[in-house]
Design a protein that fits this description.
The chain has 147 residues and is an alpha/beta fold. It has one domain (2-144): D-tyrosyl-tRNA(Tyr) deacylase (D-tyrosyl-trna(Tyr) Deacylase, Chain: A, 3-Layer(bba) Sandwich). The protein has helices spanning 39-51, 99-116, and strands at 2-15, 18-23, 26-32, 55-56, 62-64, 72-77, 120-122, 129-144. The strands form 2 sheets. Strands 1, 2, 3, 6, 7 and 8 form a 6-stranded mixed beta sheet that branches. Strands 4-5 form a two-stranded antiparallel sheet. A hairpin with a 2-residue loop joins strand 1 and strand 2.
Length: 147
């Protein structure tokens, strides 16, 4: 499972011109589910994400986590994180999980996130989405449950 985490002042997701989710300060997570991923991968990534000390403390140092600041979380599925661009010019997505398995793990992560974070937003699985964000920093972190 791969994730791109962005520290944001705000973020939103729209589908067909309609906003489906919005958060204030916190983290936007773009999540790619890979063949062979399990609940263990989702649990690992969620724990890493919510405890990453990437928010500034009173001295301006990245020393606080999402939980420490009572931040919000927006999780958007993005299978293109699993693109393999080593051959040719067209990305291959053969490592991406099949939609049924990916949906199950995406929804699993959302359920677990809602148990730990006060406000959790989500994208719409398999939809063409417009994601808007105000990146704070900018701070962008890549995570991989297999690394």
């Amino acid at each position: 499972m791969k994730a791109v985490i962005q520290r944001v002042d705000s973020a939103s997701v729209s589908v067909d011109g309609n906003e489906v989710s919005r958060i204030g300060g916190g983290l936007l997570v773009l999540l790619g589910v890979e063949k062979g991923d399990s609940e263990k991968d989702a649990d690992y990534l969620l724990e890493k994400i919510i405890h990453l000390r990437i928010f500034e403390d009173g001295e301006g140092k990245m020393n606080l986590s999402l939980l420490d600041i009572s931040g919000e979380l927006l999780v958007v599925s993005q299978f293109t994180l699993l693109a393999d661009c080593r051959k040719g010019r067209r990305p291959s997505f053969t490592d991406a999980a099949e939609p049924a398995a990916a949906t199950r793990l995406y929804e699993y992560m959302l359920v677990k996130a809602k148990e730990k974070v006060s406000k959790v937003g989500q994208g719409q699985f398999q939809a063409m989405m417009k994601v808007g964000l105000v990146n704070n920093g900018p701070v962008t972190i890549l995570l991989d449950s297999r690394r």
